[in-house]
């Protein structure tokens, strides 16, 4: 192929379908096949390991609304902001004792942690802290549409979360049902959120450069998630 054609192929804007396919092609980098998740789903985790997982995931959960607030702060599009602010409400709730974060705390309690030891973050590993903090910093400092694209890991998470509910109920029957509310309520919103996030990214990445940056953002986020599980796996 002549050099000019090669250059064109590398710089021309992808169609929405091509772009979406590039994003979806990152699925193998997602954390569903991580050895720690495989052990979790196969029922091979001890109570100690489940506690370490829940306490470290807490650090991720509490960062999500701060990441979303950074996106709101950087986004000039009122339509996007209107849709996006719902995410913060979902996680934080509208009052004490409500919201996704609260439900994660209930899961942590159901696996045997006290609320106090989750909230004071004594079990949070350095690797978790570095990875999750990098995600929040990314959202604060990169163009807002890249930060939105980084959240597209959720596009891969629905099947994993549905499977997790089945596998955890089966393999860890000692976990009280109230502990699973986080996942049951999350599954109800995730399909709609995933679709609208892809739409926002496709509509707002108008150049090939922006499209490539969005793909890179999603790859970065896959690495953030894997780094959290690497840390937990190493210490468990
Ligand atoms: O349980 C999971 O495997 C899983 C994965 C992800 C993800 O892929 O980022 C999220 C969640 N859960 C989740 O519950 C959640 O609220 C969430 C928000 C985000 C995000 O980046 O904005 N990802 C995820």
Automatic annotation (TrEMBL):
Domain of life: Bacteria
Gene3D superfamilies associated with the record: Heme oxygenase-like
Claim: Lyase is one of the keywords in the record: no
Pathway the protein acts in: Cofactor biosynthesis; pyrroloquinoline quinone biosynthesis; Cofactor biosynthesis; thiamine diphosphate biosynthesis
Catalytic EC class: oxidoreductase
BP term (GO), one: pyrroloquinoline quinone biosynthetic process
Residues annotated as domain Thiaminase-2/PQQC: 22-230
Transmembrane portions of the chain: none
Catalysed reactions, as listed in the record: 6-(2-amino-2-carboxyethyl)-7,8-dioxo-1,2,3,4,7,8-hexahydroquinoline-2,4-dicarboxylate + 3 O2 = pyrroloquinoline quinone + 2 H2O2 + 2 H2O + H(+)
Recorded GO MF terms: pyrroloquinoline-quinone synthase activity
SUPFAM superfamilies, per database record: Heme oxygenase-like
Pfam family for this entry, one: TENA_THI-4
EC number of this enzyme: 1.3.3.11
Keywords, in A-Z order: Oxidoreductase, PQQ biosynthesis
Role: Ring cyclization and eight-electron oxidation of 3a-(2-amino-2-carboxyethyl)-4,5-dioxo-4,5,6,7,8,9-hexahydroquinoline-7,9-dicarboxylic-acid to PQQ.
Family: Belongs to the PqqC family.
Protein name (Swiss-Prot/TrEMBL): Pyrroloquinoline-quinone synthase
Source organism: Saccharothrix carnea
């Amino acid at each position: 192929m002549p050099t000019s054609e090669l250059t064109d192929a590398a710089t021309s804007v992808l169609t929405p379908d091509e772009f979406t396919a590039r994003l979806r092609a990152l699925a193998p980098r997602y954390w569903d096949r991580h050895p720690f998740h495989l052990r979790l789903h196969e029922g091979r985790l001890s109570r100690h390991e489940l506690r370490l997982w829940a306490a470290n995931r807490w650090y991720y959960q509490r960062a999500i609304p701060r990441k979303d607030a950074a996106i709101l702060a950087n986004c000039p599009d009122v339509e996007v902001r209107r849709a996006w602010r719902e995410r913060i409400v979902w996680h934080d709730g509208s009052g004490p004792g409500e919201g996704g974060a609260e439900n994660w705390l209930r899961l942590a309690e159901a696996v045997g942690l006290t609320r106090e030891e989750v909230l004071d973050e004594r079990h949070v590993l350095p690797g978790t802290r570095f990875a999750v903090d990098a995600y929040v910093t990314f959202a604060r400092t990169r163009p807002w549409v890249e930060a939105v694209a980084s959240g597209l890991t959720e596009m891969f998470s629905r099947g994993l979360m549905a499977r997790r509910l089945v596998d955890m109920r089966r393999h860890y029957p000692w976990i009280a049902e109230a502990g699973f509310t986080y996942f049951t309520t999350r599954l109800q919103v995730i399909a709609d959120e995933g679709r609208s996030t892809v739409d926002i990214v496709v509509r707002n990445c108008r150049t090939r450069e922006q499209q490539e940056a969005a793909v890179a953002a999603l790859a970065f986020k896959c690495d953030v998630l894997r780094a959290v599980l690497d840390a937990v796996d190493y210490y468990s």
